Amino acid sequence: MTARDEIMNRLRAVRPIAPVTVPREYVAGPVTEPPAERPELVELLVDRLLDYRATVTHCTPAGLAGALAGLLADVPVVAVPPGLPVGWLETYPGTVRRDGDPHPLTVTDLDAPGLAVVTGCAVAVAQTGTLILDAGPDQGRRLLTLVPDHHVCVVRVDQVVDRVPEALRRLADPTRPVTLVSGPSATSDIELNRVEGVHGPRRLEVLVVAG
Do residues 108 and 97 make contact, with C-beta atoms less than 8 angstroms apart? Predict the structure, then answer.
């Protein structure tokens, strides 16, 4: 008997005789109640984001403009996607550069010192602490959130879901490019030395809007 024969015999010996049934409930995910009735989802999302070293602020819809102005008090220039609601930055005193007005913002524009980008999100996943951007009107091109060093993302509580499968079902158009954001950009080398800002913003601020 060769070594190969011995290995194959051992594999055949441990192979299950009967077919193995693998549960697939996770593919669709459970239907959850609206997040407004499940505050624990929002709490879990916030806990995950803080663990990832993001900054989280809470506000009401009426206080959104004031909260953004406070977060951006030291930011001279803000870049925004074409469809970001104008009212969000009505009390922000700095310069607002809207992508595509009149020309698309370039990498050089977005990499300017002191610039921040403000976007909404498509959906947020509580269990993984992930913000999903799908290039919607208030999120814009991926370039807008991958180049600037500072990203402020507005999340409504009705956009928070439990798990990833449920989040994917919420996407308006599954063919759009999707960006998954779980905390500030960071990586580690073999010695686990953390380096931030390698492939995205080093500073992520999340504004959770409830009420």
Answer: no
83 DSSP 8-state letter: T
CATH assignment of 3-209, among 3.40.30.10, 3.40.50.150, 3.40.50.10420, 3.30.390.10: 3.40.50.10420
At 77, list the tokens: 């220039």
Residue with the bigger pLDDT between 30 and 149: it is: 149
Tokens, residue 146: 């991958």
Alpha-helical (H) ranges within the chain are: 3-14, 39-51, 64-71, 107-110, 142-146, 164-170
3-state SS, residue 128? coil
Question: 10-52 pLDDT, tens per residue?
Answer: 888 887 667 778 777 666 655 555 555 678 999 999 999 999 9
**Can you tell me which residue has the tokens 């995950």?**
48
Beta strands in 129-172 (DSSP E): 130-133, 150-156, 160-161
Structure tokens belonging to residue 124:
């947020």
Distance CA 40, CA 170 (A): 19
Token pair of 44, please?
Answer: 């879990």
Instruction: Quote the CA–CA distance of 155 and 61 in Å, as a whole number.
Output: 11
